[in-house]
Amino acid sequence: MTYRLGVDVGGTFTDILLIDEDTGDTYRAKTSSTPEDQSIGVLRGIERACTAAGVRMSEIGEVFHGTTVATNAILEGKGARVGLVTTDGFRQVLQIARSFVPGGLAGWIIWPKPEPLAALEDTVEVVGRIGAHGDVVTELDEEDVRAKLRTLRSRGIEALSVSLINSYANPAHERRVAELAAEELPGMSVSISSSVLPELREYERTITTVANAVVQPQVARYVANLESQLREAGVDGRLCILRSDGGLVSAAVAADSPVNLLLSGPAGGVTGATWVAEQAGYPDFLTFDMGGTSTDVALVQNLTPRVGRETTVGDLKVRATSVDVRTVGAGGGSIAHVPPLTQALRVGPQSAGASPGPAAYAAGGNQPTVTDANVVLGYLPTDLAGGEITLDRDAARAAVKPIADATGLESTEAAAAGIVDIVNENMFGALRLVSVQQGFDPRDFALVAFGGAGPLHANALGKLTGAWPVIIPPSPGVLCAYGDATTNLRNETVRTLVRRFGELTDDSLRELLDELAGKVRASLVEQAVAEEDQRVVYSVDLRYHGQGFEIPIPVDLDTFDGDGGGLAALRTAFDTEHQRLFSFVLDTEHELVTVRATAHGPRPDVTSPELEAGDEDPRHAVRAHHSIWVEGSELTAAVYDREQLRAGNVVAGPAIITEMDSTTLVLPEHAATVHRSGCLLIRPIAREC
């Protein structure tokens, strides 16, 4: 038998999922994250999963890892000190940036502009110039380059980024600067924009390249350290890292281009949700991933996650392909507080994290969190993570009581209910960003809820959005790890080619697509994926001539059949998408800006397990009854063991369904039907008939 392992490191917990590829059986482990060195929590979790499965670590064939190392380096400002080499006259490209200020009309008054990732004193200009069409306007002055590199060395930079004007059209000067840097700054990591992002727009290309350089040393150290520890522990399988777009790359490629890992963790959740939604038969759905620190949401159509061309982490926005995930600071560890000036209850974005954690963890925390509110309301059992964490109800009540006092609410339960209601509204707002704001009606989608805290709030989010059924996958607390283990190797290549449609033909565009396909196929061959096992998909970024932004449009190669239908199909697809997004189209010539080819390796052949069939009666799975607080009154809820439920069982609310890594709350007037795939499908009872 062979095993594959999914690893997801979150802000609070590290999730491990071991999958038997022959039977589809899964073995889970959930441990507290170790921010000081994530590999400690990873190795500890792997050992527990292997012990649970009764297998040796040497039997693990592949390790697939979603990591937040790059994300945390940006958010915490702990990346490398980066030097930037620019073209003469472009030294302040990062300081000028884009004219955008978040907030309302007066946002510029109070908004503290973030410091650039590469300081002005660590930025140098070199003599040399490439034209817009790739021609050499001014030869590169190599002595000037050497002198400027020595200046950066004297300033103590830890990584180097190179972004020269128009290098996307001709990378010769950048590559030569990198060669000189290898001589003047031996051993230093170097990121060049023509490799990181060979696309139009100087600022976006530069900030993305600098971001890559900022996180590269830390990611490279982490990957090398994890590989080494896996080998010492007896794991000989290949290590792959999840990209922000939901695909995998080898550890070496990930260390070289870590800017593509900034949304690695959330992308694993979307990928895992796609896997389970397919098993349950729902191709269109919203994802709702609530962890201990934050909640991530996304929209999936026809089992294909919506992919964006930008990645945002904190104040940083880079040009990197990623799943269109929106994040809010709302998790199980989010802290409730009452500002003295407004006396209005607020929840988050501050979080108690893994240490000290919520007050109910009895690990030193004393601030009221969402988890404490759920404990007070009776929604959570007395233990989490298979008994690793025991909850202290008295401590939770003591933490929430000051909220009741500050707001004048009549009871601790009412305060706890207020905390839960507010955090639900915060997450509902995020779901609207990926649905309503993008022109989609959430009532046309199912809602897949996961993460350690997601199933606890899923039923309430279903009521707010009207998205039914609410799907609770098996092992919802480790679904991100499931996504890591069930996706495929992926890589992409891109070419900027600003051409009006009148300057293009189907044949010329098809020739470029074939050229890019050959290049991206070769990159996967280097990662041990045979060419015959690959699938290549294409997309182009289009706009109306004169527009300042583009819209990505997928390319259907079948329309390029020699009859001139390819460009016509792209024109129609663009107009349709423009109409959906902005409610109008223009009678203006279309323009192609960027062409992209993405190669996919084969999807892993993992057997999907099926539950034993049963009838509608779930009473055999009842383990206890206890009181819960719902909508201002106390009710008695049955507590079910999810491991004992069978396909076809119908659990009517109010009910609590427990398992090792998560807890599901079924509200009154709703029922959860157990699907043969193991998913729970929650709907209003009126829709059950």
TrEMBL record:
Question: What positions does the domain Acetophenone carboxylase-like C-terminal occupy?
Answer: 508-673
Q: Which InterPro entries match?
A: ACX-like_C (IPR049517), ATPase_NBD (IPR043129), Hydant_A_N (IPR008040), Hydantoinase_A (IPR002821), Oxoprolinase-like (IPR045079)
Q: Which residues form the Hydantoinase/oxoprolinase N-terminal domain?
A: 4-184
What Pfam families does the database record attribute to this sequence? Hydant_A_C, Hydant_A_N, Hydantoinase_A
Q: Which residue numbers delimit the Hydantoinase A/oxoprolinase domain? A: 205-492
Would you say which domain of life the source belongs to? Bacteria
What is the name of this protein? Hydantoinase/oxoprolinase family protein
Naturally occurring in which organism (per UniProt): Kribbella sancticallisti
